[in-house]
Design a protein that fits this description.
single chain, globular, 150 residues, Alpha/beta knot
C-alpha cells in the first residue's frame, strides 16, 4: 500500500519538521509514502486556484481522503479498522489531502472519497501533518499487534 500526502505549503517549523520526519520514518516500515507540497496561494488567488494545484497532483484512480473539520471523527482503533479495510480491499494507493488556511475548493471536496477529522479541536497545518502521520503509524501498530505507548 502507498500513502500520498498532498498539502498546501511547507513545514517551516524545525520542531514540527523533525516530528514529521520521525513519524514518516516509522510509517514507512508499513507503507510506501510520498509527500507532495503544493504552493501556498498568493494574496490575489482564491481557494479555487489552490484547488486546481491540488487536483493536478492527485493520481487518476486513488482513494482520496480529505482531512476536514466536518469529516468523520474516528478513534485510533476505528482508524486502524479503516486502514485494514483499505488493505483488505486491495487498495494500492490512498491519497490524503490537507488544504490551505481557507479550506479546499468545492472541486477538491467533490473529489474526496472520504472525509476525516483529526479532532474537534483546531490544529495548525504543521501540527495536523504530525498528528496524521502519528495516527497512521499507530493504526499499523494496532493492526499488527505491536506494542506502542498508550
Amino acid at each position: 500500500m502507498k500513502f500520498r500526502f498532498i498539502w498546501v505549503g511547507k513545514t517551516r517549523d524545525k520542531n514540527y519538521l523533525a516530528l514529521q520526519d520521525e513519524y514518516l520514518r516509522r510509517l514507512s516500515h508499513f507503507a510506501r509514502c510520498e509527500i507532495i507540497e503544493v504552493k501556498d496561494s498568493a494574496p490575489h488567488e482564491d481557494k479555487e486556484i489552490e484547488g486546481k494545484r491540488i487536483l493536478e497532483k492527485v493520481n487518476q484512480n486513488p482513494f482520496v481522503c480529505l482531512l476536514d473539520v466536518e469529516g468523520r471523527k474516528l478513534s485510533s482503533p476505528q482508524l486502524a479498522n479503516e486502514v485494514e479495510k483499505w488493505q483488505n480491499a486491495g487498495m494500492k494507493e490512498v491519497t490524503f489531502i490537507i488544504g490551505g488556511a481557507e479550506g479546499v475548493s468545492s472541486e477538491v471536496a467533490r473529489r474526496a472519497n472520504d472525509r476525516l477529522s483529526l479532532s474537534f479541536l483546531t490544529f495548525t497545518h504543521e501540527m495536523a501533518r504530525v498528528v496524521l502521520f502519528e495516527q497512521l503509524y499507530r493504526s499499523f501498530t494496532i493492526i499488527k499487534g505491536f506494542p506502542y505507548q498508550k
